[in-house]
Amino acid sequence: MKDRMTSIDVNLLTSPSQSDAAIRVFQRKLYIRAKQDKGFKAYSLYGKLCEGNTLIEAFRRVRSNYSKGVGVDNQSFDAIEKQGISVFLGEIQQDLQGHTYRSQAVKQKLIPKEKEGDFRVLGIPTIRDRVVQMAVKMLIEPLWEADFEHTSFGFRPKRGAKDAIKQVKQNIYDRHQFVYDADLSKYFDTIPHTKLFILLKKRLVDHSILSLIHQWLTAPVRLPNGKLVASTKGSPQGGVISPLLSNIYLHAFDQIVNNPKGKFAKANIRIVRYADDFLLMGKWYFSKEILDYITSIMDNMGLTLNKEKTKLLHSSKSSLFFLGFEFRSIKSKFGWNAKNYTNVRPSMKSRSKLFSKLRELFANRKHWTIEWIVWKVNQLLRGWLNYFSISKVTHIWETIKIIKKHLDYKLFKWMKCKGRKAHRKLRQRPYENLVKFYNLFDIEKYARLKTLAKAQ
Fold first, then answer.
1. What predicted TM-score, i.e. pTM, was given to this entire model?
2. 292 within 8 A of 272, measured Cβ to Cβ
3. What is the reported pLDDT for 3?
């Protein structure tokens, strides 16, 4: 096994093109093979996993794209870099090659939800486990990308929430206006391991890789009080590989819905799915037979529908909320024969979340300089607009005016609290003045440019 050992060249972390290109070439070859042969199964990926280039690229992606939170070993990225990245990755490589790698416990973190007393359970693996999970994800993802349905948008390369929103709007224009808005109860925590591995083995028969996945799924969970609890089902929401595993499991449901000879096709029902959030959209009212069929499928998969949040609606009679957007039917103001059209905008809930973040940003920040507050506000607004600006789909201008007015008021109060004479002129029109003199984000101009760029 030592003959195959690839040295860890940390220089590739600062100039990642070589390791990234090598991984992408391998992924492309694997994808083409899986796409051409529906019966293809990968059986020798473990050697590629142990290569230095694979581990270096995995570490780079985890460090740049994922949570910096520490796991049960309390090891941070700063500590790893102080120790030496080559030493850290070399130890992982040695453990993998000697088949002595063992996953560590998952640190549980409870994130409060809006509903009082309810929490979203987050599982945080150690950085060491996250790096190996990323390496495995990079290697096996092309196998299922060759199979995934076009109606699945969440946690996939070159796909995202914006594509899902566009598809929902297109379905409404195609008169699929009867909507079954589904909500799965604690999906990530309830995925049955046995059934998941049946699906994994349809494309993957490398026992060493399957053994690693089994370790991550069954790793004990350390509760906030320090107790260790065994994991018998689910995939930690916070693990790097969990989104891929969740997509693999719900891919079976996608196939049932999209089956041209199935019950859903006969009822002319389409699906739009983003991770565990999905909509079933039909031209006619959902019959009891179809509703019972959906429930039976979920029961067979070991999943539970949240009855409080799962609902039936008609998009022209009531608003549809999906992925932070609101779809509502509005009568056009133009023309003597005015018809209804679908208006898509950021939901009130999404807007309120933005305002809450702005409120937290300005709270007790009198000591901050204008330059620093402008930088923080710009960071927040840019991320929000990048998500909600969709060319030819969303109507965001009304929301932008509200945000500008709200931000103007917040800036005025913040400057007034600072109480400096130098700020009195700026306080007259704080938003406009900071845009002009301090490079504050001009959200209206940015949204317009972003819309034009996407339309071209």
1. 0.89
2. no
3. 38
